[in-house]
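Q: I'm building a small set of examples for a reading group on sequence design. Run inverse folding on the following structure and report the sequence directly after it, with nothing in between.
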């Protein structure tokens, strides 16, 4: 099921059966997503994680707010979400880095440990903590996995932190791929 479009109503338009069906389709789409009928997850890390200098590091997540298809584990491969259904997904993540005056910070969504499918980066903003986020739409194949990775080039290890919220990683199914 594709994401339904929502019409813009004119002042003098009458409510007709086809127009009501448009509303019904949009509501059913939202209900299916929120009722857990489509894969969705939101996982977070409860504490800081050390990110080595100049090394892309898969972040681990030990708390699940949502994981309605059990694609994430809090005991093994805790950095991964394994797709349970083939389709198109909205994917995202957020990481906050401890303040440091040197180097670059970056995050990326990595598919099957082979391909970065979205990311963001920025130079250090000084001693102030710095947050980065990523959001993308990408197909996922059942059995494949995705991770949120962090990178920093400060010259030494640097921790993630919770200044802007603990690291979080999320996604949800938005439709079939044809």
């Amino acid at each position: 099921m594709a994401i339904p479009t929502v019409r813009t109503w004119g002042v003098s338009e009458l409510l007709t059966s086809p127009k009501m069906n448009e509303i019904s389709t949009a509501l059913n789409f939202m209900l299916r997503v929120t009722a857990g009928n489509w894969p969705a997850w939101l996982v977070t890390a409860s504490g800081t994680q050390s990110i080595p200098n100049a090394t892309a590091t898969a972040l681990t997540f030990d708390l699940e707010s949502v994981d309605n298809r059990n694609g994430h584990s809090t005991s093994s491969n805790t950095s991964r979400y394994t797709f349970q259904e083939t389709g198109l997904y909205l994917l995202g993540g957020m990481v906050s880095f401890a303040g440091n005056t040197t180097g670059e910070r970056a995050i990326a969504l990595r598919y099957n440990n082979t391909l970065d499918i979205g990311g963001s980066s920025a130079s250090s903003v000084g001693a102030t903590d710095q947050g980065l986020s990523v959001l993308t739409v990408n197909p996922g194949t059942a059995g494949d996995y995705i991770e949120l990775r962090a990178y920093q080039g400060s010259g030494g290890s640097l921790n993630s932190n919770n200044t802007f919220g603990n690291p979080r990683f999320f996604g949800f199914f938005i439709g079939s791929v044809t």
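The first strand starts at residue 40 and ends at 44.
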